[in-house]
Design a protein that fits this description.
Strand order of the largest sheet: 1-3-2-4-7-6-5
Order of helices and strands: HHEEHHEHEHEEEHH
Number of domains: 1
Radius of gyration: 16 Å
Structural class: alpha/beta
Shape: globular
CATH topology: Uracil-DNA Glycosylase, subunit E
Number of strands: 7
CATH architecture: 3-Layer(aba) Sandwich
Number of helices: 8
Largest sheet: 7 strands, mixed
Low-confidence stretches: none
């Protein structure tokens, strides 16, 4: 199976997943009750698959869908403030055809980039449990394995970075260096003569962006570094 077929097959498995019945119930409840600002929207309310270029050399690993963001729109980092920050940065770095994101019909296209996450269902308080993350881990490993030309992985937040590290190890990558989590920290993994650089980044959540923990120049620096590594 080629990369496109593999990513599509994983997406179908993700959407149909019922490994965490409590999360499926929560997502469905949020989709029924909705948020006042989105009361006219039809919520996705299911696990969210990866989004982007199936032949990507750059993969981004986030935390989990937001209850009224990806859980509403059905696309990674779409429909909330985190997505606004992320896609603006990706566009500036040449990894997205536009900065705007709204829903799955907005024309947004990623270039040489795949966005995925440690968890695929929106968790209460945005805090997935260790068991819920473990249930999702095989999907992330399979996605990274399907990217034959993978060269750079960006972990968005400590949980996304940890999940990316574990996924790479599970598919045969060996870390020659593994840096503690810090914004911009780099770790190097090798396999059969190939190399992947894992770059850690603070997550573009409101908690970080509204407080100045993460600024746009800081996020830009991560994707500029990714661009230079791919060059």
């Amino acid at each position: 199976m080629n990369a496109i077929g593999a990513i599509e097959a994983i997406a179908r498995r993700v959407i149909a997943c019922e490994r965490c019945p409590e999360l499926r119930a929560y997502c469905a409840q949020v989709a029924r009750e909705k948020k006042r600002a989105h009361r006219e929207s039809e919520y996705w309310g299911r696990p969210v698959p990866a989004f982007g270029d199936e032949r990507a050399r750059l993969a981004l690993v986030g935390l989990a869908p937001g209850a009224h963001g990806s859980n509403r729109t059905g696309r990674m980092f779409t429909g909330d403030a985190s997505g606004e920050w992320l896609y603006r940065a990706l566009h500036r770095a040449g990894f997205a055809n536009q900065a705007q994101q709204r829903d799955r019909s907005d024309g947004l296209r990623l270039i040489d980039t795949l966005i995925t996450a440690a968890g695929r269902c929106a968790p209460p308080q945005n805090k997935p449990t260790p068991q819920q993350l473990a249930n999702c881990a095989p999907y992330l490993a399979d996605e990274l394995a399907a990217l034959a030309d993978l060269r750079v992985v960006v972990g968005l937040g400590a949980i996304g970075t940890k999940a990316a590290t574990a996924a790479l190890r599970s598919i045969g990558w060996t870390f020659e260096s593994l840096a503690p989590f810090a914004h911009g920290a780099e770790s190097i993994a090798t396999r059969a003569g190939a190399r992947v650089v894992l770059i850690a980044s603070y997550h573009p959540s409101r908690q970080n962006t509204n407080t100045g923990v993460l600024t746009e120049p800081m996020l830009d620096a991560v994707f500029t570094r990714a661009r230079n590594l791919l060059a």
